[in-house]
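Q: Hi! First time doing this. I have a protein sequence and I read that you can turn it into a structure. Is that right? Here it is:
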Amino acid sequence: MERYFDITPRQKEQFAALKPLYEEWNARINVISRKDMDSFEEHHLLHSLAIARYVRQNDIAFGNVLDVGTGGGFPGIPLAIMFPETRFTLCDSIGKKIKVVAAVAEALGLENVEPVWCRCETLPGGYDWIVSRAVTDFSKFFPLVKGLYSRGIMYLKGGDVHSEISECCRQCRLSPSSFEICRIRDWYEEEFFDEKYLVINQKALPLHSPKKRNN
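A: Yes, that's right. Below is the predicted 3D structure, encoded as structure tokens:
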């Protein structure tokens, strides 16, 4: 972790506590496969924190973030540790996974995490950013969340992501220029990230505030 990020002693303590917490919960509720648990830092922490690399690299004000299909809390929990000033809502349609998220957040003292058991399309919106980790094809994901955010989407995805985004642009009538695709291997040395990408789709922000009409 410290090879790639400058973190405080408190964050170091929280990241160190994560694997034991998930091992304890995994014994009761299977939220992470055994294979992934053996590579927990690489497959879950570093993968989730690729979003943090992009945010810091581009000096983005993260604001209010919704993690869609968070599962056991990824990427939301690691991001909440890294950005304690940001409010994270972690939603999933499977109740037992949200139970784990709530317990882990409480154990870590993460007051900036709100676990929500629901489907994302039932939420009222008002988020700055959407984050997610490969819950579905992007062309299916985008219609679910398009009314929920004001700034953009950061989506962790593997495989032939360029073809997937091209198809999404065709189906959802999006401009290819609205997408940025970052190869995570450019940030991390581990081979696991060879075919892992961070897809960013940002909404254009107005250059000036709208002029007030004279009544």
